From TrEMBL:
Class of enzymatic activity (EC top level): translocase
Organism: Sinocyclocheilus rhinocerous
Subunit structure: Homodimer.
Ranges for domain ABC transmembrane type-1: 254-530
Reactions the enzyme catalyzes: heme b(in) + ATP + H2O = heme b(out) + ADP + phosphate + H(+); uroporphyrin I(in) + ATP + H2O = uroporphyrin I(out) + ADP + phosphate + H(+); pheophorbide a(in) + ATP + H2O = pheophorbide a(out) + ADP + phosphate + H(+); uroporphyrin III(in) + ATP + H2O = uroporphyrin III(out) + ADP + phosphate + H(+)
The encoding gene: abcb6
Pfam families, alphabetized: ABC_membrane, ABC_tran, MTABC_N
Membrane topology (UniProt): Multi-pass membrane protein
Its EC number(s): 7.6.2.5
Family affiliation: Belongs to the ABC transporter superfamily. ABCB family. Heavy Metal importer (TC 3.A.1.210) subfamily.
Highest classification ranks of the organism: Eukaryota, Metazoa, Chordata, Craniata, Vertebrata
InterPro entries: AAA+_ATPase, ABC1_TM_dom, ABC1_TM_sf, ABC_transporter-like_ATP-bd, ABC_transporter-like_CS, ABCB6_N, P-loop_NTPase, Type_1_exporter
Entry keyword annotation includes Membrane: yes
Biased composition (Polar residues): 821-833
Name of protein: ATP-binding cassette sub-family B member 6
Amino acid sequence: ALGPCEASPNSRLWSDGGLTLCFYFTLVSSVLLTLSFLFGTFLCICYSRYGTAMEPKFIPRSRLYWLQVGLSVLLVLQALGWMVFRIARSGELPGYVVVYGCLSMLGWIWAVALLRLERRRVLVRDRTRGHSTVLLLYWAVAFAAENLAFVSWMSPQWWWTLETSDQQVSFAFWLVRYFSSGLLFLLGLKAPGLPRRPYMLLVNEDERDVEHGALLLGNSNENQSTWKDFGKKVRLLVPYMWPKGSVLLQLLVLLCLGMLGVERVINVFVPIYYRNIVNQLTDGSSWKTLATTVCVYGLLKFLQGGGAGASGFVSNMRSFLWIRVQQYTNRVVQVRLFAHLHSLSLRWHLGRRTGDVLRSIDRGTSSINSLLSYIVFSIFPTIADIVIAIVYFISNFNAWFGLIIFVCMTLYLTLTIVITEWRTKYRRDMNTQDNNAKSKAVDSLLNFETEFNVEELTVSEWKTNASLAFLNQTQNLIIGLGLLTGSLLCAYFVTEGKFQVGDYVLFGTYIIQLYTPLNWFGTYYRMIQNSFIDMESMFKLFTEEEEVKDDVNAGNLDYRQGQVEFENVFFSYMQGKEILKDVSFTVLPGQTVALVGQSGSGKSTIIRLLFRFYDVQGGCVKMDGQDISKVKQASLRAHIGVVPQDTVLFNDSIRHNIRYGRVTASDQEVEEAAIAADIHEKIITFPEGYETQVGERGLKLSGGEKQRVAIARTILKAPQIILLDEATSALDTQTERNIQASLAKVCANRTTIVVAHRLSTVIGADVILVLRDGQIVERGRHDELLAKGGLYSDMWLKQQQAQDSDSASDTETKDRKSEKLQPQTSTAGHKGH
């Protein structure tokens, strides 16, 4: 190990109160390479001979694992960087520097290889979990070696005095090695990139789960961290912060970010001017100079505010300007989400829970604004202030002050996050007990169960408050230790004449200024967690796949005559249960085709496929010879009008609901459509006429009135193709006859497909298709189908018999009423005599 040291004047092992740099670096690199190469090679042989490749589903996805890899690569780069620095600085390269750089790079590269090997392969007989002894020993020795440098604390050869630029750079390299190797050792104890349980045990459990039909390992996301995929979530937020298409709002965003930068600058200069005031008071400066400094300090405090910008002029102006951007975010998120939901298939909408969807939208929108506010205007500025403070104290004081601030801030943030996560369970338990106690109290205020529940609530509440007090005391302890350490060091330099009294004041002021926003860090952390949870539920809606999509090269429908063709169509809502089986028919331009059959035979499904709520699984649907799956949905639906079986109305006026068929229609056209739908006379009898509110989902109207509004809406749209899905199912006989006459006028010379349950409504259809079990079993006109004596004829006879029975029942009911009246009259007359 002494060979490379010959070029150094300090060839002895101990010199000037410390180890020689030559001996230290040669020893450390040699030991580390020996550990990684010799023992690592043995480990590789064992893995190749006795190990097996892990299945990808058992390998945890971990950001901490990639942090391990990144830290190892950083240590490789720092060894290379140290050699480059020595060459650039002195123009020569000592032998021990070459030895250390080459051996360290080889050792850490080999460590990365072992780390990746353990993640991909596993020893079959290994019943333990975590990293191998080789890697743990390597990281432990690397961290211990960096601590060995403290032995040379008093040696002027080392970097501890920080008097020269070479020592300062060497100290920076040492900090990188120290914290990287220490963090690697701590992460190694947790082994984030490896399964938490023995691999063979996971395999056996997985096989049993498959046999019993259970979920595979790792499918549950209930305990998933809200910080998972943090970068992806932040990238999702960015488009909503930058308002595309509005130059004014974009300038507002840039102005707000600029004011955020101004606040950071002000935070630096406030303590500086406070120091200048103290120094000028102590050194006897003139009143003019002192007054100017005090005025500048007052102006800076006005701009900053009383709490590090919390309520200053700049902060208030930024919040005021950000309101417009926040409104833009609300609007864009809701519009995009509703547009996406409207593009989803009918299958999704039939299975949705409207309350959950609306709650996710409301919470998600507010959570995006909260996240943008907390992250952009609280978290990032706080971190920026810490970095600026470290740089400022290193450059204007010395590196020890920067190290003190770095260590204190790191401990403060780390412990705040850890303790906040730890005490969350107590808060959750207290909420649960509180709900239980109040529920019991409603049932019985004095029984034993309520008292017992209150006792549990008291314990949970005590744990919550005690853990909060513990968090506050921990934060206070770190602040106090950091302030004490820095103040003692600063006071020492003042007594040595290296610093002025104002420097001592500056340090204390700056530290307190940094800690002020950090006091809210725990709150910010919890709020960001909650916002992430709310945002995830909303973005899950964005990730819902559109079942019916337009092709990339889809064009508009070239409508010519309105001929509709179904060619060998197969369709099923769920796997294994076909609704339509090889259905083929043609609707000529201007024809009226009726679809009849029992419930579940596939009548309404044909309507939905033509409107392209779903795509067929076999065959194709054509309009004027064009496959409708190859054209844009909007252009297809623009030519189709639908009167559904279940009418959907908005909670608005009748006029608005009819006008929805064509939003550009005039009031006169709306009323003409209502007349055609036989609802105009009814509307004008309402106190508010066409301005009458229909209520939620049209509940203020009867079923027949709702149906006629839907028919008026279709009439107003005046489409070339009309689909009537049980359009008169909710109407009485007289109204149905009136509607049929109106529909006959509307459907004249238009391609019409009618789904009907009452066969009497489709007697005049050009073609009647009879469906059974998803197949067309009969087709023809009404008279032809009756003459065949098949399924249609049976359905017709049954409906006629049911209608005759209903008529007889009505007649019998009337006779009974008259009979009840007649005896009463006779008896009365008899008594009178």
